C-alpha cells in the first residue's frame, strides 16, 4: 500500500534551479548517470544494510508536481515559467538499477544507479537520499541488534522518539533488519509489519490498585497478556500477577532498574509460583550492547525504542548521489568526477558483484566497468593480490528497479527481510563484532578509476 | 496549511489495548491529567527549546480513525468490537495547556498538560511525544548553532540526511531556532519557511567545462547567484566566476577542504579582483562547534545539513507523557505517580512560571500546584534558599492550546521564531556555552511532590 501524499516537493530548492539553468543552457536533456554510494560506514560499523528501496519505488510513483505546488513555485519565484512547464509534465522516464532491499553494502558499493536525462535525474536526488539514508541507517542498526539478540525476539517500540512519519518507516526498517514486531500501528496498516502491545504504567495508575489494573487487563486481553510489573513493587506485582492470571500468564515486562538482576529474581519468583512458562520481556533504553550484555540473563524478549529509531548513534547513512557519467556533445557517455578535497568521487558506470567462496562466505565486493562483459571481468579480479579460486561464485548486486520510468523491481517487505537475513549470514563472522572496526570485506575497484 | 493525511494510526498498539481494557473495567471515562516533561536535558545541554506545538495542533485536528484504518484494526484483532466503536467516534474533547512554541524549557518543566478522560487522552501519547521530541531536538540544536553564528545567516540543507517527511519538520524547526532559510521546498509550501538554493557539483560536471557551467548559471539566475567553486581548482574557479559575473557576483560556496583557510584565500582573491561585496558561504559537515571555530574567518553564511537534522548528537528530546492525576471513585482528581527505579514521576497538576530578575535575566523555573492562587504562590517561592526580590516578574508558561477539543492556541511559525529568540535572549550568558554543563537555571518545585 502506498502513502498517497505528493512527494515532488520533498526536494532541495537547488535541484530545481539547476533544472532551470540547464534548460537554458541546453544541457537539461543530456543523458547522465548518477550513482548512490557511501564513502564510508559510519560509526566504525563493519557492514551496512540497504533499506528503503520499496518505499523509494512508491515515492517515485508519486513524484508529480500538483497544481498547488506549481503555483507555489511560481509565486515564490523559485524557478521561471519555462521550468514550471517542464515540472508540470515531469515524469521520470529513465532506468534505475540498485542493490535489492536487505542486501549488505560496503564503502563504495554502487548502491543505486540512475540513467536518464540530467533534468529528470537530478530532481530525484534529495528524495532518493532521504529515503535510503534514513531507512538504511535504521536497518543497519537493527541488524546488529538482531545478531546480539540471537533467537530471542526483538520488539520495535521507538515511535515516540522520532518524527511521527519517520517512525512508520523505522518500524518497517526494523522488521527488515530482523525485528519480530513493532508497536507502530501505521506500519502494520501500510506495510504489514506485525504489531503488538499491551499496557503502560498509566493503565496501572488509572486504577485504584495494581490488582484492579491487572484484573482489568486480564479480563480484556486474556491471561496470555503481558503485565507490566514495575509501577510500584516488582515482587508484589509478580505475586499478584500469577495469582490473578494463573500459570498461563503470558509474560511480564520490566522497564526499569538493573534489568539483568531483575530478570533473575523475577524468573526465580515466577518458577517458584509455578509460572515457569511465563516469559520475561525487558525494555528501557536498550541497544545492541546492552542486549548482548543480557545474553546470559533469563530474558525472553527485548523491546527497543530510542536506540533503534536513532540508528544507535548513527542516525543517517553516509550515502551521496553523484553524477558519474554524462553524454558529450556527440551523445557518447563520458565518465565525470569532481576533485573536491577529501570528497572525490569515481567517474564511470559500474557493475557490482559479491564474490562468495566455496564455503558460502562472502570474500569481496568486486566493482568493474558496466557492460556486457562485466560478469566475466569480475571473475578474474584478484583480491589482496591473491589468486582467484575457480570455485568462487559472483552474485550480481544491481537489479533492475525501474525500466523506462516504470517500476519493475517491487517486492514484498517479507522478501527484503529474508534477503537481509541471508546476506548477513554469508558475511564473515567478524562482520558481527560490535566493536568499532573496518569493513568486513574489501571493496575492490577494477577499472580505470584509480583510487578515490 | 495542514498536511492532510490521517494521523490516528501514528500510535503505539498498546494505547488501543489500554483503551479496550479500560472500557471493560469501566475506568475509560475517568478524568485524568497527563503531563509532558523531560527528566533531563540530553547531551549536557544547558537549555532546551519547545518546538512542534503548531504541528501537533494540526495533527490533533486530523486525529480521526478512517474506515480503512478501523477495518485494519478489526481484521488484525488489535482491539475488540466495542473499542472499534469507541475509536470510530473518537474526537478529543478535553483541554490542553502547554509551553508556547519557541519557549525555553528545563528538566521537569511541565511542557504540556492534557485534561480529558483516560481513553481520549491516552491515545494521544505517542503522537504528542513523536512530534515534540523530534521538533524540540532539532530546534534545541538549531538554537545553539544560531548563537554560534551570531549575525551571519544559517541555511538549513539537511533534507537528504533524514527521513523525507522528518526533513520538512526539521526545516520548520530550524527556522524557529533562528535559521534564515532552508533548502526544503515543502517546508516553504506548508509553513512559509523561506527557501534558497542554486547549484551542486553535478551542474558543473554536466557541462563541458566549469566556465560553461558558470555561464549557464549566471544566464539563468543572474550575477547575484551563488557559484560553487570547489569542483576542480578553487583559485581558477574564483577567477572564472568574477570574470563572468563581474563584481556583482552574489556569493561563492566552498563545500570541502579546510574551510577557514579556504575562506581566507578566497576572500583575498575576491577582493583583489574587485569583488569585495561577493559573499563567501561555507558548507560541509558543520555543527555549532565548527561554526564557532569559524567566527574569525571571513565567512558570510553557513549551510548546515547532517548535524542540524540529527540534533547535533541529540536526535530526540527526552520528553515523556505521564499520568499525574486521575479522578477517584468520587470524581475528585488525585495525584498519581509511578515509583519505577530511576524513572519516578511527580504526581499532581502543576502551574509553571519563569522568574525574571529586574535586569531581564531569567532566574528560575518555578513549579507550583495548579489552581486559582498559583501565580501568587509562585512569587513567594525561594530559590537556592535566598530571599525573593519584589522586583522579579513571573511569566506564566502554560497557555491554553485546546479548549473542549477545539484548537485555541494556533499561531504562526514567525511568532514561534520570535519567541525563541526572545526567550533565549533572557537566559543567563552561560546558557549559551557550548561545553557540556547543567541547566542554566534551576527548576524549583514548590509543592507536595517531594524530590523526583
Automatic annotation (TrEMBL), chains A, B:
InterPro entries per UniProt: Aldolase_TIM, NAPRTase_N, Nic_PRibTrfase-Fam, Nic_PRibTrfase_pncB, Nicotinate_pribotase-like_C
This enzyme's EC code(s): 6.3.4.21
Catalytic activity: 5-phospho-alpha-D-ribose 1-diphosphate + nicotinate + ATP + H2O = nicotinate beta-D-ribonucleotide + ADP + phosphate + diphosphate
Gene Ontology terms: cellular component: cytosol
Domain Nicotinate phosphoribosyltransferase N-terminal: 9-133
Molecular-function annotations in GO: glycosyltransferase activity; nicotinate phosphoribosyltransferase activity
Record's keyword terms, sorted: Glycosyltransferase, Ligase, Phosphoprotein, Pyridine nucleotide biosynthesis, Transferase
Protein's pathway: Cofactor biosynthesis; NAD(+) biosynthesis; nicotinate D-ribonucleotide from nicotinate: step 1/1
Any single biological process term in GO: NAD+ biosynthetic process via the salvage pathway
Post-translational modification (record): Transiently phosphorylated on a His residue during the reaction cycle. Phosphorylation strongly increases the affinity for substrates and increases the rate of nicotinate D-ribonucleotide production. Dephosphorylation regenerates the low-affinity form of the enzyme, leading to product release.
TM segment ranges: none
Protein family per UniProt: Belongs to the NAPRTase family.
Biological role stated in the UniProt entry: Catalyzes the first step in the biosynthesis of NAD from nicotinic acid, the ATP-dependent synthesis of beta-nicotinate D-ribonucleotide from nicotinate and 5-phospho-D-ribose 1-phosphate.
Protein name as it appears in the record: Nicotinate phosphoribosyltransferase
Organism of derivation: Spongiactinospora rosea
